[in-house]
Design brief:
About 40% of the residues lie in helices and about 25% in strands. The protein is an alpha+beta fold. Helix 1 packs across helix 3 and helix 4 packs across helix 5.
């Protein structure tokens, strides 16, 4: 296991240097000595966190997975911002009295502060990047405002379904997963990749438009309550009014939050979640269970409508998917 220490605000490997690559595989609190982030399990002493990342001149990029969940905060103040893009699960960041919640489909951007607390779910998979503020300001000057002297007023949240955000996420994953056999090539191209990464962030992350500073917090909680309710009742008929009541908000606010955070309506979100579950079940049991039974299990009543939506999303019909999976 490689232990990671913080020096000069950025991360380097203390026990073994492998270019700019670092890793952490913690299965107990004893594995966390010298790690630059305070990290503990949400309860008890069991912890399971795996992190793989790379450092650059102006950035740190990493991918973390946890089977136990964890609570963490930085041990150092850093003049930087952190971008966190959940792939699975969810997490929240507490900053004083405010709490920001993000889950798959919603990216979160935050200043790095030692007082901020991150609480991760037990199924979290998140790709993230910390970028030096001076690099952000320099990139913003180049693209938008030559007179910029402060970090741009970014929105805290971004919809991960936009093309620009999807490219950003793929760039981060590509950097982290670069094969060790190509380390020399990586060293040669990474300065350019890092510059492209920063410019991509500047170009795709939305700027603040909210006038009410509390709106981001409220919208975050509405989204979590609504999506949790949908997941718990995804197999039966759901109405927008019912979901809004469960989330403790109005239908209008629910619609607004879903469109701002996820880029879709609550109804489309429900359909997308059902299609995802049908797709998973078709791959695992489609050869022994009728397609209609699986579709009905996840709330699809009309088979023709289901088949049309499925093909529009996955590019093939349910029967074609089963046939391909069985080959």
């Amino acid at each position: 296991m490689t232990r990671v220490a913080a020096v000069g605000g950025w991360i380097h490997q203390r026990d073994k240097i492998i270019g700019r690559k670092f890793s952490l595989n913690a299965t107990s609190q004893n594995d966390l000595a010298s790690f630059p982030i305070f990290l503990r399990p949400p309860n008890g002493t069991e912890i399971n966190v795996e992190t793989l990342g790379r450092t650059g001149q102006n950035s740190i990029v990493w991918h973390s997975r946890s089977g136990s969940g964890f609570i963490s905060h930085s041990l150092d103040e850093m003049d930087a911002h952190i971008i966190q893009l959940p792939i699975e699960g969810r997490f929240s960041r507490k900053e004083g009295k405010r709490e920001y919640v993000a889950r798959s489909g919603v990216g979160l951007l935050s200043p790095v502060r030692s007082s901020s607390l991150m609480i991760a779910s037990s199924d979290l998979s998140v790709v993230a990047c910390a970028i030096d503020n001076n690099a952000l300001i320099s990139a913003f000057r180049s693209i938008f405002d030559p007179e910029c002297i402060n970090v741009p007023a970014f929105s805290r949240f971004s919809n991960m379904k936009t093309p620009g955000m999807q490219v950003l996420q793929k760039m981060l994953i590509r950097i982290v997963s670069w094969p060790e056999t190509d380390e020399k090539q990586f060293d040669a191209v990474y300065p350019l990749m890092e510059e492209m990464l920063i410019f991509q962030l500047i170009g795709c992350w939305p700027l603040q438009t909210e006038t009410n500073p509390e709106s981001a917090d409220g919208g975050s909680h509405v989204l979590v309550r609504a999506s949790d309710y949908i997941e718990a009742h995804i197999g039966r008929t759901l109405t927008v009014v019912e979901v809004a009541n469960a989330a403790g908000t109005s239908v209008r606010t629910l619609q607004k939050v879903f469109r701002q955070r996820l880029g879709c309506s609550p109804v489309q979100y429900i359909i997308d979640q059902r299609l995802t579950r049908v797709h998973q079940d078709l791959l695992t049991e489609g050869d022994v269970t009728l397609i209609s039974q699986i579709a009905y299990r996840w709330g699809f009543v009309h088979l023709s409508d289901f088949t049309r939506r499925f093909k529009a999303r996955y590019g093939k019909s349910p029967s074609e998917l089963i046939h391909k999976a069985s080959i």
